[in-house]
Design brief:
Radius of gyration: 24 Å
């Protein structure tokens, strides 16, 4: 029965992710990940791989495309250079297989496989900690975790890195631990390292946890052969994924990526923009993007764990996420919560511990637990199926999230489909559009006049200027509304206090300026300046 309930919880997770998949246009990096992964699988040696992402996760996402047999991405000067978005866009939108089929098959495959690995590790680890009761207590927090649902539903490197990071520490946490466990942990470590370059922190985190464990065991020394097995297994996987060039190719691309990200990346936090990041960025992101019942249960679980459980058990659940999170807070690249997504499986297990502990308390415990779960469900389902745009009640919900965070926290280009449906309901007039993303608006039937676009490529299809008799409709992506990547960050400041007529996926705001003379004047001025 417990196994059935666990499967049902994982199925809910996948179902919610699938609902998001079929309602979302491509996010910014998805076409590139897909084309690059398929290029590698189809025998091109991945010449178009984007250097800031290693190979494995991209190849894994593209694996089901082998059955669809689409033509390979066109190999040309742009594909061989750093600027590969044009070829990736052509692969997705000008293919013999439809863009939706290519993207959604890959999304569903990634969602199902990484959710399966993560679910097994979460449930088995929870059962090991507290038996079947705790295994069941963790289920709602896994099934209803918007940061995990939304990122696992995309073709990205973040879901693979998250599942493999957690699997590595799940394996190392076993007691007693044999040499086979070190080898298996090395395999998952190597796969994580070849999924996202941020996983270069995984070996140091693992070594720190192992050294702390040895101190907790009364100074029992860490066996050198165990460390050697762990690291050698990881390096072997890196060499297999990267082929004959092996670890040297991985290290070369990693060094190139570190050189790029060390210069910083624009990030937005509560009205401010920084090129070098904010110390509080990820703290705020976790505080407002995590359901409050999960935060409360996780804090309760962590406290209960520290008080009641052996230090060794606490170590493996608390040290790996804390060390990685602390390092991320000092990063100059802060484009979204996804950069610390890997803390959430640990938080989910802690939340299960907290709920199980609360359930054992007489009188108030069980009603409080039921209230927490009802609150969790209501909070999460109110944004269905737009889970990438989830913000909790403390943040004011998804309609106010853009005041705190944008980019991949809220608006990553995924709202075009919903916007197109709303425009069709309004008679399908041409619109003014300020879009942030890599999707093709014309693919969804939008006729639009571009204004302050932030895209990876130039587009011409579907471009039509609204006529004098057309309603004046302006759609602005939340990221552009806050001016994160615009030359003038306040280009749309005149819109920020206006109430949109519609929010497409909570990420693209549609304003009806037809009867707004002041708004039309602002728009005319901006259009004139853009010429």
């Amino acid at each position: 029965m417990n196994a059935v309930r666990s499967v049902l919880a994982a199925a809910v997770f996948v179902w919610l992710g699938a609902a998001m998949i079929f309602s979302s246009s491509p996010t910014f990096d998805e076409p590139l990940h897909l084309a690059s992964g398929y290029s590698a699988l189809s025998g091109d040696g991945q010449p178009g791989r984007w250097r800031t992402h290693p190979r494995f996760a991209q190849m894994w996402s593209a694996l089901p495309l082998l059955a669809l047999k689409p033509p390979k991405p066109l190999i040309g000067p742009s594909w061989l250079s750093e600027n590969v978005f044009g070829s990736a866009d052509a692969f997705l939108y000008k293919n013999s297989v439809s863009a939706e089929k290519l993207l959604n098959v890959a999304r569903l495959w990634s969602l199902a496989t990484w959710a399966a690995l993560l679910s097994v590790c979460v449930f088995v680890w929870s059962r090991r900690l507290g038996g079947s009761a705790q295994m069941m207590a963790v289920a709602p927090f896994l099934a209803l975790c918007p940061p995990l649902i939304s990122n696992f539903a995309l073709v990205s490197t973040d879901s693979a890195a998250t599942a493999l990071y957690f699997a590595t520490f799940y394996t190392l946490s076993k007691n007693p631990r044999r040499e086979a466990h070190y080898a298996l942990a090395g395999v998952t470590m190597g796969l994580a390292m070849t999924s996202a370059y941020g996983m270069v922190l995984l070996p140091p985190c693992a070594l720190i946890a192992l050294l702390v464990e040895s101190r907790l065991a009364g100074g029992k020394p860490l066996q050198a052969r165990h460390v050697l097995i762990l690291l050698a297994s990881a390096l072997a996987i890196v060499s297999v994924i990267y082929g004959p060039s092996g670890f040297m190719a991985y290290w070369r691309d990693l060094a190139s990526t570190l050189a790029i990200v060390s210069t910083g990346w624009p990030s937005y936090l509560m009205g401010s923009i920084s090129q070098t990041g904010f110390l509080a960025y990820f703290l705020v992101a976790v505080a407002v993007k995590t359901p409050l019942p999960q935060l409360f249960a996780a804090a309760l679980g962590a406290a209960s764990m520290i008080e009641r459980r052996p230090a060794r058990e606490c170590l493996w659940l608390l040290v790996p996420p804390v060390v990685y999170f602390a390092a991320a807070c000092f990063s100059k690249t802060q484009a979204g919560l996804r950069y610390v997504l890997l803390i959430f499986p640990f938080m989910v297990v802690c939340a299960g511990e907290g709920l199980a502990w609360l359930w054992t308390k007489p009188q108030i415990g069980k009603p409080a637990a039921c209230l927490l779960l009802a609150w969790l469900a209501a909070s999460v389902f109110r944004v269905h199926p737009h889970y990438l745009a989830y913000f909790n009640e403390a943040a004011g919900g998804p309609t106010r999230g853009q005041r705190l965070l944008v980019d991949s926290n809220l608006d990553w280009g995924q709202g075009l489909r919903d916007l197109a449906l709303e425009i069709k309901r309004r008679g399908d007039p041409p619109i003014y559009l300020s879009y942030f993303g890599s999707g093709d608006p014309s693919y969804y039937g939008l006729r639009y006049y571009p204004l302050e676009f932030v895209m990876s490529i130039a587009r011409r299809e579907g471009v039509v200027r609204p006529g004098a008799r057309d309603p004046v409709l302006l759609a602005v992506s939340a990221t552009n509304l806050q001016g994160l990547y615009l030359d003038d960050p306040d280009a749309f400041a005149w819109l920020r206090d206006r109430k949109p007529a519609y929010r497409a996926g909570y990420s693209i705001f549609l304003y009806d300026l037809t009867n707004d003379a002041e708004g039309r004047a602002y728009l005319a001025k901006q259009l004139a300046a853009a010429k």
